[in-house]
């Protein structure tokens, strides 16, 4: 059985790789490391199909190391010991480069078993993970390795790999293929930054196209659509992509960009993640619009309730209304900043006794010389306000809330400035 196209045309030189120019461009860190001939322990972090495995193989060949690969989903400590046993033998005359894929699936004991060997230099470790290593890799391993982040491949770079894939298939199958630019662009766009996925689509699209009378093939968007289906969208509800989309969603609303906000809402809903969309939407309404347009809170709540009642796909309609409203509304985080300051004081032990005037009416002990609560009821005074101390003595005159510059809060400020003078 033939290997997948992505494996058959896997680059063997740095120059053949696409993407990762921030790491592999001229004068960039990984390029310099590869050309030095010496390899430190490294962790490659990034989405699948972005060149992590390919680069590890190239580095092993350039440094004349024996490459051994393990996968964290099924490898054991015994597998590591088997590799260690090769040290000093003819099987590994120049040392071993251990490529450990899916490092995040190794538990603490398994990760610790690597320390002795990577510390003394007997084994050079290149581990890869699709999850943030600072959350999933133990500090002892992190401190002995350098983390390099791999980015999703751009559509333009993926197009280069797609063209190469079709070219290789023409040579292998000895047929003439006509591949319109629109097909190449659609494949690159649907791959979601994953070169491997794009090459799988190239192979499947070719197989799904019926030959012409002369044996040639003319690829079309229609044939491609039968292959792609819904597979072109990358969204992992339990991984980093999940949190990146949610973060971008809220930041787009906060940044008053309704187009971007709708885009990220669509990505959340396409992934079936209605709860996350609703949660971030409600938080953003309170945190980022807040007192600049306080009426937005019940409006957004009603839209979210409606979305939950009707479910997907119709839920997208009330949520889109609410998202555009939040994105285009005036912004104020004054209350958000105020509660954060107050919480910081509480967490730092700045509380203090509640003033006697505010306490529930209870008996004053013998030690209290001036007995009585002396609370002044604001409704008994003009404009329903009277000056009295509400904060504890140790926080007297502390300011947590500062009026925002929006019309609503400035109107309230003007009112209270007039009353309190």
Beta-strand segment tally: 7
Task: Count up the helices.
Answer: 19
Q: Rg from C-alpha positions?
A: 31 Å
Shape: flat
Please tell me the overall pLDDT.
Answer: 85
End-to-end distance: 87 Å
What is the assembly state of the chains in this entry? single chain
As a percent range, the share of strand residues is 5-15%
Report the order of strands and helices: HHHEHEHEHEHHEHEHHEHHHHHHHH
The biggest beta sheet, please?
5 strands, parallel
Strand order of the largest sheet: 2-3-4-1-5
Poorly predicted runs of 5 or more residues: none
Structural class estimated from helices and strands? alpha/beta
In percent, how helical is the residue content? 40-55%
What is the element layout, followed by pairings?
Layout: H1 5-8, H2 21-24, H3 29-36, E1 42-45, H4 52-62, E2 66-71, H5 77-84, E3 96-101, H6 108-119, E4 123-129, H7 133-136, H8 139-142, E5 146-149, H9 155-173, E6 177-178, H10 181-190, H11 195-208, E7 217-218, H12 221-228, H13 240-254, H14 258-270, H15 274-289, H16 296-310, H17 316-328, H18 334-347, H19 407-420
Parallel strand pairs: 1-4, 1-5, 2-3, 3-4, 6-7
What distinguishing features does this structure have?
flat; two-stranded parallel ribbon; alpha/beta; five-stranded parallel beta sheet; 421 residues
